[in-house]
Amino acid sequence: MIIGVPKETDPAENRSAIIPATASLLVKLGATVQIETGTGRQSGFSDDLFASTGATVIQNRLEVLANADLLLHVRKPPLADVDRMKPGAIHISFLDPFKEKTLVEKLAARGISSISLEMLPRITRAQKMDALTSQANLAGYVAVVLAAAEVPKVFPLMMTAAGTISPARVFIIGAGVAGLQAIATAKRLGARVDAFDTRPVVEEQVRSLGARFVKIDVGETGQTKDGYAKPLTDEQLQKQRDGMKKICAESDVLITTAQVFGRKAPVIITADMVSAMKPGSVIVDLAVESGGNVEGAVPGQAIERNGVKILGYLNLPGRVAFHASQAYSTNLVNLLEEFWDKETKRFVLRLDDEIIQSGLLTHAGQICNPKLK
């Protein structure tokens, strides 16, 4: 089986779907691995390192696309690339399927069996393949590092000859994977950390990391069977904003992480709440790519409102591309190994398996995922 890894085309993407260590694992499984030249350069891996694993480095992108029985990407492929894929091939990546109707239809029409990593089930057996979690974890870390570099304060308590320096106050909204890592990172840097989540079940996790859990009564809330926060009503969102406003005004750093899979991110921080914050405060909006939690946040830019910096940077995991690629490629290899036939040395789509059923979007010329249908 030929596994092809084309270079990412998005200029904001520094990650690579495979690194030399994971390419070596695929070669040992018996796969022929073909990698487009320059695939790992942005994440710190040279062509020579890939070649040393037994993978083949190919100059011509079209050749990689046309040869591959199975293609691995980080992001969704450009529409033009789909026309160059081998009919019947398998494609695996983040596909953002609810926003990419045209792409999904094109993959189906080409006869590509596409697996969307966002759609894999939240079950124990699939944890090792959970690329959403591995990348969100790194995004939470990067958010704190960016904020620490921008805020005009140090994070830790310091006892100096010139007096005592009080710790910075950090407020984190959303205690999912990214939020919990942000809490842990901010605490390691010595900040005083407050955190809020609509799911009361996460309070224990927040406290175990040394943060104070902020309680705001917004009525009945909860989480989906997959562990995601359920969307709030407009009335609940307003109650939440009212309860947060005072804490925002007292905070030096605000990090928002609230996202609802397949839907636009809720606006949690209004312009009025931003204006109540102290000059020099910093906000990092981790949900900016899906609509943003902060009113006025601009995707890909750092802006200032009334002396408050709002960072809307894209692809935070890509800022630590070496380790992000390491984690992502390991998730991919774990998925491939789970369904690898050692005798035929091929990845097998077991259509009766829960993981494949959940993640498979298109197959045999049809859109087969019931959620997309």
Protein architecture, described:
This protein is of the alpha/beta class and 373 residues long. It has 2 domains: 2-119 and 339-367, NAD(P)-binding Rossmann-like Domain (Rossmann fold, 3-Layer(aba) Sandwich), CATH 3.40.50; 137-319, NAD(P)-binding Rossmann-like Domain (Rossmann fold, 3-Layer(aba) Sandwich). It is built from 12 helices and 19 strands. An 8-stranded mixed sheet has the order 3-2-1-4-5-6-18-19, with helices on both faces. Strands 11-10-9-12-13-15-14 form a 7-stranded mixed sheet, with helices on both faces. The chain has a two-stranded antiparallel sheet with strand order 7-8.
Work out the count of structural domains.
2
Number of helices: 12
Oligomeric assembly:
single chain
> How far from one another are the termini?
30 Å
- Give unreliable regions as ranges: none
Average per-residue pLDDT, rounded, comes to: 95
CATH topology of the largest domain: Rossmann fold
CATH class identity of the largest domain: Alpha Beta
Structural class, judged by helices and strands? Answer: alpha/beta
What value does the Rg take, in angstroms?
A: 22 Å
State the strand order across the main sheet.
Answer: 3-2-1-4-5-6-18-19
Fourth-tier CATH superfamily name of the largest domain: NAD(P)-binding Rossmann-like Domain
CATH architecture of the largest domain: 3-Layer(aba) Sandwich
**Number of DSSP strand runs:** 19
Q: Major beta sheet, specifics?
A: 8 strands, mixed
Beta-strand content bin: 15-25%
Helical amount among residues, as a percent range? Answer: 25-40%
Shape: globular
